[in-house]
Amino acid sequence: MFCLGSLPSRPRAMLWFLGFAAQLVPALFAANQNQPSSNDPAPPNPAFTITLETTTPPGTDLRSYLTAVSSALRRSWPEKIKANLILPGDKGIVFVKTVILRNGAVEQASPGLEISSGMPKLDDASLATVSSSMPFDPLPENFKGERLETRVVFRYGYLPDAPFKAMYEAGQREGASQNYTGAAELLEALVAKDSDYTNAWNYLGWLYNKLGKYDKAVGAFKRAIVVNPRDPFAYNNLGQAYAYQKKYEEAIPQYLKQIEINKKDRYANANLGRAYFELKQYDRATSVLETAATVAPKEPSVFYNLGRAYAKANQAEKAEEAFKKSVDLDPIPMRMNDVAYQMAIANLDLPTAQHYAESGLAALVLRMRDTSLERVGADDARMTSWISHLWDTLGWISFEEGKFVEAEKYIGSAWFVRSSGEVGYHLARVYEAEGRRDDAVRLYELSLGAAQPFDEARQHLSQLLGSDIEIDQRVEQRRSQLTEMRTISIPNAHDTDGVAEFWVLLSPGPKVLGAKFITGDEVLRPFTKELESASFPGTFPEATEIRLLRRGRLACVRGVGTPCRLLLASSETVRTDE
User: Fold this and answer.
1) Cis peptide leading into 111, omega within 30 of 0?
2) pTM for the whole thing?
3) Backbone angles phi, psi at 4, to 5 degrees
4) For 573, phi and psi rounded to 5 degrees?
5) Distance between CA atoms of 431 and 417, rounded to whole angstroms?
6) For helices 248-261 and 266-278, angle between their N-to-C axes, nearest 10 degrees
7) What is the Cα–Cα distance from 73 to 84, expressed in whole angstroms?
8) What is the pLDDT of residues 445-456, one digit of tens each?
9) Number of neighbours of residue 116 by Cβ within 10 angstroms
10) pLDDT tens string 55-87
11) What pLDDT was estimated at residue 48?
């Protein structure tokens, strides 16, 4: 089923933490930066930046105090850079941890080297800069703690704003417009010019994740971590790149590292819990997701996944409570669908599951009444796929209740609109329950040949056949029927040939409300009239005020005495761009 359970990864770097709430503090200072002209492709001389972070939740506004600390660090810097003979080509990043006591003195063993640059003179210069800045001002009177943990990050030769800031921001704009390919091309050009640009690798990896180029994403995130070993996002994003490939065991250490950097990271905690769930480690999943729910109490997908984990851990009451929370936070059609489906497959409170599915369906039908061929939007195509999910969910609830005729009606309509392996498996289960063995065998075979084949279909098919020896061969022989079942004959009234794409707008009956030429051979444009007269059987499970948008590919051959063939696309593959 369509899943809203994952949390997004984040492309943007954050330079300062004020406690774990990730409140930004204006404590970044830079020196010796030579800005080039806009026409000068050469990078400026390497420079240093000092970024001050707090690693303990202070419970008070420390902006002024941290600014004063940063000023002290900046004043001591020129002496240390000269003493350590740091050259323009030296590059590295150093993390220095310092614990400031209430009176401004520092705790014994502070400052201490937390992460080395690999270059002793850069490490020494960084430690000396902090040491010579002590003691600091006393902590503010309204600060509740007795000690303040700070992390000072020294970057040598890493320039976050120059000279390619405009290129980075252009990439961000393209990404915000969902032009991920264009954004990635800009970021690729940027890192080719400046391989250490702050956050460029992390953002590029995020774009690769969006494009499904997961191997490239892994490489980009690993490079981002080299540039900044305590990047506030890169480890989680690297975990996502592994998780998208179902490499959950490789993803988990990355989420744990992100949580080590920020215990209350809302994304890493949620993603870690989901990874444990996918590995069927349900006790761990529930524990981590409970933490995620306290970190992100208004994130519906966290409670959705927590409900799934509770259900698998046989904690029915907690599962129902978590699912209800997810819907309450996000009462949109697909959230209600996902929760209803999970409750159905866990056989939890089926009346409530049906209520969620019917509520989601009613809300979606209301939106689909405005669908028009005059202006086809992205949501119009997506809603066709969404409603197939809701039909499948309602059908599966009916199946669990033993209402097989009702189940076949809804799941059959979903299968005609969206030929996914899971929907085919559901329809096969209905046929099997009705004692229709041959129909069940055929649907299991089609399910295994469809997009995203459903593993459980193989198990049931093997039981019906008495063996799994010939299953792959049978599936291959059946594969062509996946397109045949969505193909409709259209009279070649214009005795022409060609190929073209059309929109077809349907309503219950079924009735064709209209057809519209999209692209292809112009000689087929007049076929809109033939499409409007065609029959589209098995499309709707019930009569509702709904307008269902389908996209089809019409192919005609002149003079052979055969009709044209309109192949309707499976809804999850449909795009609205022409």
Assistant:
1) yes
2) 0.78
3) -105, 25
4) -100, -5
5) 19
6) 160
7) 16
8) 999 999 888 889
9) 15
10) 776 667 788 888 888 888 888 877 766 677 776
11) 65
